[in-house]
Amino acid sequence: MNNTSFQLPARPKKRFLSDREWAHKHFAEISKQFPNQWVAVYNKKIISANINGSEVEKTTSKKLGHQDFFIFFAEKGIHVY
Cα–Cα distance between 5 and 2 in angstroms, integer? Predict the structure, then answer.
């Protein structure tokens, strides 16, 4: 048996969890304003949104530097994947 140690990832910061909760609470209005777009949230504010998630990540990283931010897809309507 291999005794390789396994390290759990770090717990998310409180601000990240707070931003996630805020986005969840405001999901209906966010998805109405930014339908089917990737949205980045930091300090309970929308920092950027775009249909391309990579662009949202790049734009937000430029604005915030090395800060962690919450990013999610604001799905509007019914989609079949």
Answer: 9
